[in-house]
Request: fold
Amino acid sequence: MLPEKLFRIEDANAAVPRLALWIERLQRGALRLEAEMQALATAHGVALEAIVTEHLLRERPAARVLVEELDGIVREIEESGAHLKDVRLGLVDFPAEKDGEVVYLCWQFGEPEVAFWHRVEEGFAGRQPLPGTARARTLQ
Reply:
């Protein structure tokens, strides 16, 4: 099944500056959310894992703004056609085509540009450098 959007390397690289801002906001927000959840867990004398977002929002309604902001950022990333894979690591995949096969161009927060790709089923562990230079126009 083909994704709705296939990226060329230059399209993915053009999205990197905006993604870097979004990922930074997501990571900072996730840390704030985790701190709120930890404080609630401590107040109730339970493990952090016992606190779910719904419980946090019931106990601390002000956290709703943060949760909605984070959800909005994730939605923006997904609506761009990219796929957020891991907030903590800042991993984002871009569907692309290589030799008639759908693969992912792979970018990690902190990298200046998209320089890796992997097969859909391999994930991050299967990352390979893009052929030629990171600025190559097409996968070969």
The chain has one domain: 9-129. Residues 5 and 80 are 9 Å apart (CA to CA).
